[in-house]
Amino acid sequence: MAEIRIAHLHKRFGEFVAVRDTTLTVADGEFFVLLGPSGCGKTTTLRMIAGLELPTSGEIRLAGEDVTFRRARDRDIAFVFQLFALYPHMNVRRNIAFPLLAQGLPRAEVRARVVEAARLLRIEHLLDRPVGGLSGGDRQRVALGRAIVRRPAAFLMDEPLGALDAEFRALMCEELRLLHQRIGATTVYVTHDQLEAMAMADRIAVMDKGVVLQCDRPAEIYHRPRSIFVADFIGSPAMSFLDARPAGPTAARVGEATVAVPRLQEEPPPELVLGIRPEHLRLADSAPLRGVVAGVEYMGARQVVTVDTAAGRARLRCGNEVKVGFGERVGLLPDPTRAILFDRASGRALRSELFAAAGHG
Ligand SMILES: Nc1ncnc2c1ncn2[C@@H]1O[C@H](COP(=O)(O)OP(=O)(O)O)[C@@H](O)[C@H]1O
Ligand SMILES: [Mg+2]
């Protein structure tokens, strides 16, 4: 069992708080992603879990044991860095074997484990090649091989795909996910890329300014974000945010229009923001919410249409059969069951039927 439990973890650098009172549990075997913009405290959190940085306060438990003050090398954890240092003069086999040889394991055992790791990563055919001439993706696999031969209780990965180009990244995302399915080791993966996080995570913790804002399954974060920040950070094209005011139990005033919205479970504040995902907004001639088309992007089978309204800019996704042109006046119809209302002042999502349906009460 290799559950990672962090409680009230706090890290200051002088006066600056990099990680603020963070409590979360990564379940045994879970692929857990720390997601957030650059500088939000992801690396610092990961380094504390690894033992490379001491927390200012708080506690870290690995498989039930308090490891808060234990040295990195005495924690049963493998850290995969973005800029992994492979030994260029050694072949793939020796690079993967290195941590085991350093531990003084018997040679037969080392050989068997290296072949096993290479098989999992599908780089058996490269074992006797020098790492110098390998592609970026293969080098990444060798780095992973070196982490998995140790059979650690947990893996920590800090933007491991950051150095790869987009095409390779997508391939490696899939590769990592498959590897995780095969070995099932607890993994904490850091990225600022929401698409990467959505594609790989069992659960995602969205961070900003040292604080975990929401920790949930990807679909939950996508459909039921708890704040404007989280809603805006996840999804491409992004959610649209329109200025709104309350107008009865299931309606909001958006610009000159009255729009149907989910019933709120609390008294709405006077200033609202109506959030709607591009696939939950459609063009409708008779819809009272009016706007002017400011852009049309063709994306293969679909298109993304940008519309400027009196209440803000909206983007919607629709099929290419919909004919619409720049400058055209159109009506917009948000799916009344999908709109999310936020408190403008705090950015907090207001609880509605949409949240209740998922047991968010
Ligand atoms: N050793 C350090 N000394 C001072 N400030 C640091 C140090 N390490 C990180 N920071 C600051 O803490 C914040 C969080 O950094 P980091 O955890 O690396 O963010 P992320 O990985 O999310 O980009 C940043 O503002 C960074 O400048
Ligand atoms: Mg970082």
Quick overview of this protein structure:
The protein has 361 residues and is of the alpha+beta class.
- Number of discrete helical segments: 9
Mean pLDDT: 93
Q: Supply the number of structural domains.
A: 2
- What is the spatial order of strands in the main beta sheet? 6-7-8-3-9-10
Query: Under CATH, the topology of the largest domain is which?
Result: Rossmann fold
Residues in β-strands, percent = 25-35%
**CATH architecture descriptor text of the largest domain:** 3-Layer(aba) Sandwich
* Major sheet characteristics: 6 strands, mixed
The CATH fourth-level homologous superfamily of the largest domain: P-loop containing nucleotide triphosphate hydrolases
Q: Helix proportion of residues, in percent?
A: 10-25%
Q: Based on DSSP secondary structure assignment, what is the total number of beta strands?
A: 20
The N- to C-terminal Cα distance equals: 32 Å
Q: What is the global morphology?
A: elongated
- Rg of Cα set: 24 Å
| CATH class annotation of the largest domain | Alpha Beta
**What structural class is derived from the secondary structure elements?**
alpha+beta
What report would you give on this structure?
The longest helix has 18 residues, at 166-183. The two termini are 32 Å apart. This protein has helices spanning 42-50, 92-103, 107-121, 136-148, 166-183, 194-200, 218-223, 228-233, 353-356, and strands spanning 4-13, 16-26, 31-35, 57-62, 65-66, 77-80, 154-158, 186-191, 203-208, 211-216, 240-246, 251-254, 257-260, 272-276, 281-283, 289-299, 302-309, 312-319, 329-334, 340-343. By secondary structure, it is α+β, with helices and mostly antiparallel strands. The strands form four sheets. A six-stranded mixed sheet has the order 6-7-8-3-9-10, with helices on both faces. Strands 13-12-11-14-20 form a five-stranded antiparallel sheet. A five-stranded antiparallel sheet has the order 15-19-16-17-18, with no helix packed on it. The protein folds into two domains: 4-223, Rossmann fold; 233-356, OB fold (Dihydrolipoamide Acetyltransferase, E2P) (Beta Barrel). It is built from nine helices and 20 strands. Helix 3 crosses helix 4 (136-148). The model has no long low-confidence stretch (mean pLDDT 93). Bound molecules: adenosine-5'-diphosphate and magnesium ion.
